[in-house]
Structure prediction request, 254 residues.
Amino acid sequence: MNIVNDPNESNFSEKVYHDKRRRHNGSDSRVFLGIIFVAIGGLLILRNLDILSWDLSHILISWPMLLIVIGLFNLSRKSSTAGLILIGIGTYFMLPRLFNVPDDFFHNFWPLILVIIGIVFIFQWNRKPSLPSYGSSVDKNDILDETAIFGGRNMSLVSEQFKGGKVTAIFGGSKINLLYCKPVEGCVIDVATIFGGTKIIVPEGWNVKSEVVSIFGGFEDKRGNSVISRVDQSKIVVIKGVAIFGGGEITSMP
Prediction:
């Protein structure tokens, strides 16, 4: 007896799976944030009661520790590029609080930043973006993979099943047109902008959620409240990553 799989049932099961996964990731993030707030509040109370020594509070209640915590938060949200860079910077500035370092220690800040960024990109060069699982093969036009270093270009994608991807801009930038794309469930774009810029053009109906961490930079949704208020809640696209001394924007205008 031949058994025929109902495609509607398969699509329904897949939708339920992604809904559960999205709720699970959101719950994990809220729990992590809750732990952070509890820890910070507890440390401040202990310091005010003179239970926590000055040396220890100098380490735990500091801006380098804040960078490390934000980096861990990004790792928990599967944004490894931003997480590793923030943890690396925070650890670098934390070392003088833990050990006696040479006077010229901070002269190596920028070389170390370059090393950290290089290591992150080396480990992620062959890593495929976190995309939904599908039974059919994935067309290369359904995935965004753009790198701009000391330069840039304008590009357009045409896809009925846009699954996200990654954008890297270092001392350069790109203008990416996604007006002719339709996102699938779980669509995520991973952005890394360092001394550069990225412009992403999306249809007005997309519900774009920006989770980009900015350090001396910014990543802004410039579509305006009138457009954002009319978005299609079923077309969710998440943009994750980091903007360091650089930036990016989301717009619907070519």
